Amino acid sequence: MEWTGARYADQPEVEVETWVAAAPTRIWPLVSDVEGMPGMSGELQAVEWTDGATGPAAGARFVGHSSHPSLGEWSATATVVTWEPPAEFAWEVDGDGGPAARWSFRLEDADGGTRVRQRVRLGPGRSGLSHAIDHMPDKEQKIVFVRLREFEASMQATLAAIREAAEAADGAPS
User: Fold this and answer.
1) CA distance 118 to 107
2) pLDDT digits (tens, 9 = 90+) for 69-80
């Protein structure tokens, strides 16, 4: 886990990682399947490709539909900004004045398996979190901290699901 920044304008981020007993080529289809991600996330409910895209590629866009007990339901459009199979996949979520967030997966050969990292960086564009901060500016650092902790827990669960699926696939690295 890595924490940087305490205010939204600092573009705070969190990263989690795990080691998977499988080759990057076995894990890649799991991390790049954005339509399958809702099955690994408590917040993300559905994803669909848009603007004629049918799958991930640099510049492809998709809409994610999310739900949170405190934040309600919302949809956000994202653009794939890095597509380097089987090493790195990143997308930026549209926000007011720039990306509201940048999400990424990075896969690296390590110790006979793969080190998988997932990272999110908030901002610099405004997001739903910005609106909460606008209503309680004196609590900005707490709001950001709590949201990053939520992301961290969700990302750990996602990586655990990816690890389980990759290691169950035929049982051997490929």
Assistant:
1) 9
2) 888 899 999 999
